[in-house]
Specification:
CATH topology: TIM Barrel
Oligomer: single chain
Strand order of the largest sheet: 3-6-7-8-9-14
Shape: globular
Strand content: 15-25%
Radius of gyration: 17 Å
CATH class: Alpha Beta
Number of helices: 6
Number of strands: 14
Distance between the termini: 22 Å
Structural class: alpha/beta
Bound molecules: flavin mononucleotide
CATH superfamily: Aldolase class I
């Protein structure tokens, strides 16, 4: 069966990829799966300069998903280019780099990394406008029509020869507004959803479990929300929509 698709100009062998940050830069997972079988590899969120994460604990389980507050820790673009990009290139699978504006989280910082990515041998760029665990910046841009439009326009200007995918936060009342903001600013596609802000309390200690109190909830608990938002977003824009959601159903009920 021919499963090939063209996702906003990215030729994929099949429509299956990996959600940013759940797969690192692929090295660890390559021991268990053949990376050439994936439709595309989306890297861990990468910033221009190395970034430390949040104080621990940074992950905890909940009844039907997990909370993380990693804080977008990453080794920075130069390290990625030297160490991970050559490794990923050997699989003949499109590489989409997920990026964000580092600790600054400003529009200028997003533009800086997009400019650098524009000149790399990669197949697409996904900008993460939904980083609830980073103190500065991007969550503020990601939640409104105007904010998403402004930052997407700025990135679009410098990203002249790569598909631009805008990753949206679900922490909004109406997902169609940021979706439209991305489209109107010239994004080639949108992807959603990122994690939903949550919190767990240790009732014995009477304290939050995570080091920075709140984190992003992912996994089976948020899948119905993701499906609803992908449905709403895809009815409000004409550009392609990538659905990011936990992909295992015991009863196969989508
Ligand atoms: C540990 C962890 C790290 C993540 N890191 C990133 C990241 O660097 N950039 C990003 O855009 N999303 C990141 N995400 C969000 C995922 O890409 C995905 O959007 C989210 O987990 C929802 O999908 P899921 O419920 O299928 O996991 C991360 C998620 C987890 C669990």
């Amino acid at each position: 069966m021919n499963t090939e698709i063209d996702f906003c100009g990215i030729k994929m062998k099949n429509p299956v990829t990996v959600a940013s940050g759940t797969f690192g830069y692929g090295r660890g997972h390559s021991q268990f799966i053949d990376l050439s079988k994936l439709g595309a590899i989306i890297t861990k969120g990468t910033s221009m300069r190395p970034k430390l994460g949040n104080k621990p604990p940074r992950i905890c389980e909940t009844n039907s998903g997990m909370l993380n507050a990693i804080g977008l820790e990453n080794p920075g673009l130069d390290y990625f280019v030297e160490n991970d990009l050559p490794f990923l290139k050997q699989f003949n699978t499109p590489i989409i780099v997920n990026c964000f504006g580092g600790a600054e989280g400003t529009i200028e910082a997003y533009v800086e990394i997009c400019e650098a990515l524009n000149n790399l041998e990669i197949d697409g760029v996904e900008i993460n406008l939904s980083c609830p665990n980073v103190k500065a910046g991007c969550l503020a841009f990601g939640t409104t029509y105007e904010g998403v439009k402004e930052i997407t326009s700025a990135c679009r200007k410098v990203l002249t020869n790569k598909p631009l995918i805008v990753k949206l936060t679900p922490n909004v009342t109406d997902i169609t507004l940021p979706a439209k903001g991305a489209e109107d600013a010239g994004a080639d596609a949108i992807s959603l959803i990122n994690t939903i802000t949550g919190m767990k309390i240790d009732i014995e200690k009477r304290k939050p479990v995570l080091g920075i109190n709140t984190g992003g909830l992912s996994g089976p608990a948020i899948k119905p929300v993701a499906v609803r938002m992908v449905y709403q977003a895809s009815h409000s824009v004409k550009i392609p929509v990538m659905g990011l959601r936990w992909n295992y159903d015991r009863r196969r009920c989508n």
